Amino acid sequence: MATLTVREAIYYSAQIQLPDTMTVANKLARAEDTVREMGLTSALDTRIGGRSSKGISGGQQKRLSICLEILTRPRLLFLDEPTSGLDSAASFHVMSRITDLAAREGMTVIAVVHQPCSEVFELFHGLCLLAAGSTIFFGPASTAAEFFASNGYPCPPMRNPSDHFLRTVNKDFDKESEEKLQYEPAVADEAIDILVNSYKSSDTSEVAKQEMRQINEMDRRMIGRNRAGFVTKTLVLTRRLFVNMYRDIGYYWLRLAIYVAISLSLGMIFYNVGYGPDSARSRSSMLMFIGTLLTFMAIGGFPSFVEDMKIFGRERLNGHYGVVTFVISNTLSSTPYLLLIAVVPGAIAYYLTGLQKQIDHFIYFALVLCSCTMLVEGLMMIVATIVPDFLMGIITGAGIQGIMMLNSGFFQLPNNLPKIVWKYPIYYISFHKYALQGFYKNEFSRLVLQNDLEGHKTITGEKVIVELFQVETGHSKWVDLAILCGMIVIYRLLFVVIIKVLDMAKPMLKGVMLRCYTKSVIHGLE
């Protein structure tokens, strides 16, 4: 998280990952030991930084990500290019600390490394060399140089063995022959063929196969890790998300400033609408605009939320917490900010316009606004799951809201909407419909308006909303609010269901695609 300091990132992660049987002091001590092992003590109080703010260097970010994963001393640790972005000294120190930790804690570490320095290369016990999709060598790292030498590719003196291996099998820069009609036999291709065939018939390959057979014959058992409890994870994650939302200006603060400015403009345009013949239309226009403004502009925080979703995806797949914990924590941490951006701009527009002065009417008005913003947050969570690209997500979210707004009953009266699709079901699943009708019932109840220019005739607010706006008066405004609250829950449950379905569908989809690809390759070869 770009807004957190290194200290906060490691402390929060320690409290989430380490079990409740450890005290908070012991968890923090484990975090400090891990930070020292990765050489990040000098950067503890520096923010991580991201797309809009400068922070720690790329190498420090790499070391911090390793810190977050070795907190629990996992039995099996995968490291994807842990030395990338680090100089040779930092690479050696990081890998030597991980080697010591693995020996001390009984860990198995599998690392993908590109061109390690000779000191780092010597730290590895086993080595797997791949080229063009084939295994060139898989065995003790100390015997790899001897294997290459026995096949006519000895490592020159004073050269890093890993550099020699890569240079021997790298065929990306093989030149095309002068005739341009066919390729000359490439040196790298020849080397790969020789090494692959030699390895298949070598004793090293037989030893590896024998070890794999022994492993497959072993008794199998699940190795679990003790984690923090559900309540601990939820509270810590809520606190971390709350801090991130507070520090990220683009999440809520910029939105609040724009809402206040627009609410001031709205209040001055509709200032003190009064009770004249045109006041009913003015009130409905103001209510519709303020309701759609706060919901439609909620997509402005989508880029920040996408960044949170990336972190959630990585931490969930690493087993730190589940999707239910994330949904609850996200809801709890965002609710105070959503209340703030609903109450402050809403109060400005509400009282400048001169709507009903009773406090209970304003409380209902603010509750509906807050419910709408929470609904859109849930909608954008679903969009972020299906469309992870933030630009496409903003377009998708805006399109969905645009369709719901058109069918809310404001731009076209409910009875005039086309029955198929637009009224059934879109009109009834559009949350704008329930928000708008709740606003109408809240504002026009017990209200008396003038029905002519002279003011001799009056009309009740209840009659206005039935005849002019075709509002359903068979239930109270609190039922509309309850429906909105129910939709908030449904949207978040839908987010959980989509995550679970995607988890099951992705492996099956990849399997189908792989089978189709394999068949096409076979047909191509035929």
From TrEMBL:
GO molecular function: ABC-type transporter activity; ATP binding; ATP hydrolysis activity
Domain annotation ABC transporter family G: ranges: 114-179
ABC-2 type transporter transmembrane domain span: 234-444
GO CC term (a single one): membrane
Entries under Pfam families matching the protein: ABC2_membrane, ABC2_membrane_7, ABC_tran
InterPro entries named among the record's database cross-references: ABC2_TM, ABC_transporter-like_ATP-bd, ABCG_dom, P-loop_NTPase, Plant_ABCG
Domain of life: Eukaryota
Record keywords, A-Z: Membrane, Transmembrane, Transmembrane helix, Transport
Record's bilayer topology term: Multi-pass membrane protein
Protein name as it appears in the record: ABC transporter domain-containing protein
Taxonomic source organism: Oryza barthii
